[in-house]
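Reminder to self: tokens first, then the designed residues, so the page reads top to bottom the way the pipeline ran.
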């Protein structure tokens, strides 16, 4: 069901966002896993790199979990993923050929199969449809970020997440830093007032260029764009939503998940101008305004051979807080100085060694499956949609060069992802030009 702006604001409005056990398992005598009544069966939708890793983290989160079904638009990607997971997880992978679903409707067939938990990791534009379907099918959900590329899609996500909550379904988001223990320690202190009232904030996500797949002769235009989804805003939301949303989410976390009032920004295609980069920008710069005149300054770029930055810095009336994702620094300066000094305990290299050294990616799944076992499903829906909205408003401000209120962003009727897609479709959205695009 599509939720129009009028329907959504009538039934929920912006106020929605303001509020918006021990495992049992059976090990057969031959050493192979065998199913039992307590086995949780997992389905993976979206078999790229992130989906593949998420599946292994899910299987590693609970002794009695198996991967039972996989779905992807492309058979080669599904098979590569299957082989990778199988090589690492062995007999916890129990996906036969009848449960390898390929095509644009593969998600529907997977959700009709006998699974308990679904991992949503397809390109972001598909997330609203996949999330709605997963909730309607009564599945517990791990939902990779971001969740929508346009406001109509985000309104669908908000409705679906509320439906998941009413059905007592787990909904864990892919905002991995929220599951990073050093950041929980640090932002917890900020929220406890250790730096006082926040006066200003700065967040960055400046990085280099990412992967690209050369076009093959047999690919249609749609397949080529789908295989290079990062570079098409109708599939990715642009990198402010697809990637840099992590920094915006940390900023939101520090602000107590209070929504800003408005955002003014700019952006463009300065270096990454080749046709192979589709229609996305390579840089954005934003100023978010909160109540009481508090401002947050945000910068992101994807440009090769430029200085990297991936951090959040907060200035309060009683001190400062610095969280740097590159250096691992988590520090409070001022009268209540504090530093997180155990930076090696939760590194990715130690992710699978023992329960005391879990990566943030693993922690997401540990908590998801533990909540299901305890019949207290974990729910991230309220804050995860707020961070997506903040990123969406930023992209709108960057594309137009105008000030965009958070209400305007949520109420927008602009559709980037078309309702119906097919392998032979022709779809082209020109790159935005600030001051011209409305």
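Designed residues (438 positions):
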């Amino acid at each position: 069901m599509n939720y129009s702006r009028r329907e959504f604001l009538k039934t929920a409005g912006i106020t929605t966002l303001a509020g918006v056990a021990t495992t049992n398992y059976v090990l057969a005598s031959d050493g192979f896993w065998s199913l039992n009544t307590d086995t949780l069966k997992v389905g993976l939708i979206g078999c790229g790199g992130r989906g593949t890793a998420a599946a292994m983290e899910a299987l590693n989160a609970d002794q009695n979990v198996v991967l039972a079904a996989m779905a992807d638009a492309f058979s080669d990607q599904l098979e590569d993923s299957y082989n990778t997971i199988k090589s690492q997880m062995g007999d916890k992978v129990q996906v036969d050929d009848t449960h390898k679903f390929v095509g644009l409707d593969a998600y529907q067939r997977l959700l009709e199969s006998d699974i308990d938990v679904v991992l949503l990791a397809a390109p972001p534009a598909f997330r609203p449809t996949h999330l709605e379907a997963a909730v309607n099918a009564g599945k517990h959900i791990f939902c990779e970020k971001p969740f929508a590329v346009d406001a109509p899609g985000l309104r669908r996500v908000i409705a679906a997440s509320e439906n998941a909550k009413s059905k007592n379904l787990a909904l864990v988001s892919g905002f991995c830093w929220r599951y990073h223990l050093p950041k929980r320690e640090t932002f917890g202190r900020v929220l406890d007032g250790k730096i006082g009232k926040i006066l200003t904030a700065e967040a960055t996500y400046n990085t280099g260029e990412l992967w690209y797949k050369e076009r093959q002769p047999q690919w249609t235009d749609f397949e080529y764009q789908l295989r290079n989804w990062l570079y098409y805003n109708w599939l990715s939301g642009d990198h402010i939503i697809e990637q840099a949303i992590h920094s915006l989410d940390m900023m939101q976390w520090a602000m107590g998940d209070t929504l800003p009032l408005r955002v003014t920004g700019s952006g463009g295609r300065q270096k990454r101008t080749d046709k192979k980069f589709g229609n996305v920008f390579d840089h954005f710069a934003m100023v978010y305004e909160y109540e009481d005149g508090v401002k947050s300054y945000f910068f992101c770029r994807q440009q090769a051979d430029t200085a990297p930055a991936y951090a959040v810095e907060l200035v309060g009336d009683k001190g400062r807080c610095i969280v740097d994702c590159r250096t691992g620094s988590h520090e409070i300066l001022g009268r209540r100085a504090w530093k997180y000094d155990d930076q090696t305990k939760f590194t990715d290299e130690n992710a699978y060694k023992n329960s005391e050294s879990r990566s943030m990616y693993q922690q997401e799944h540990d908590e998801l499956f533990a909540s299901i076992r305890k019949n207290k499903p974990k729910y991230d829906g309220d804050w995860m949609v707020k961070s997506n909205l903040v990123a969406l408003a930023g992209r709108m401000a960057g594309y137009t060069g105008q000030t965009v209120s958070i209400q305007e962003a949520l109420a927008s009727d602009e559709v980037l992802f078309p309702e119906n897609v097919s392998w032979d479709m022709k779809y082209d959205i020109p790159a935005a030009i600030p001051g011209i695009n409305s």
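The radius of gyration is 21 Å.
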